[in-house]
Amino acid sequence: MFGLIGHLTSLANAKQVADKLGYAEYAESDLEFWCMAPPQVVDEIVVTSITGQKIYGQYVESCFLPEMLAGGRVKAACRKVLNAMALAQRRGLNITALGGFSSIIFENFRLETLKRVRNVDLEIRRFTTGNTHTAYIICQQLQAAAQRYAMDLAAATVAVVGATGDIGSAICQWLVNCTSVAKLLLIARERRRLEELQATLKKGEISSLEEALPRADFIVWVASMSQGVTLDPQVLPDPCVIIDGGYPKNIASRLQRKGLYVIDGGMVEHALDIEWNIMQFLNVANPARHLFACFAEAMLLEFEGLHTNFSWGRNLITLEKLELIGQLSRKHGFRPLLPAA
Known about the structure:
The chain is of the alpha/beta class. 37% of the residues lie in helices and 20% in strands. A hairpin with a 2-residue loop joins strand 5 and strand 6 (120-121). Helix 5 crosses helix 6 (101-108). It starts with a strand and ends in a 5-residue tail after the last strand.
């Protein structure tokens, strides 16, 4: 059995979902209550592969909310992730994906030093970030978007915002080694890490966001969009494709203009309906078939009996792993999600 650890996008969103799920106390409470609330298993899941194989899983709501980080409640956020992982392990889940901010919190705050959670010693092999499948899907979305909008990737300038992160660095590897992209612009907060990535790739130009936007035919956004960041759609080329790989996905609501195409990055569509309820609360067009690629990675690993932390650590995704997870994704009926033609 597999697991998915997730969280909702805001306190307001969490209250609405709690009300619909019948958790009255959660629906009526403020952020302080959510900081103390324990994780809950809120959904049972059945997934059928196009091979005919069937697997079962559970959705663990961590009760983490992004406001906890914005409000300086870092300890509460860390506790949420660790407690959700401990619950998944106590439930006997073979492989569990850490969705949204869960894996970011675990890595950024070095929670591997706190693997003892009450009476549970966390077995890291049971958990995956899902970042390899997310990176693979975004790469496929880039290629598919170039074809759909008649844009030549080989002549294009591609900007990767969040290039030094786990997903961003994997996408940069793929762009350098598996395509003939003309120019690669590397954008991230820390200059030192950008220089290290550039040295590893032996290609790519370090750029600021302001300098990159007017030049980029494709923008792969795999960093969280900080509060106060404003983007002017008028400075972007026409046409321009933006792959929004963040969570929550909010670029499309901010940028609208003729010749500008925003794609929900890292999203997949399954060939068959998935038996679950949770995705109807996560703002997707087809909740029975659309899901986050990181969640799908746990499903793929369960289908294959690969009960191991396939994606773990920072900047450890290889081209070989991208190829393998891609093969498994196609085998079991997942495909990159693109806007309707």
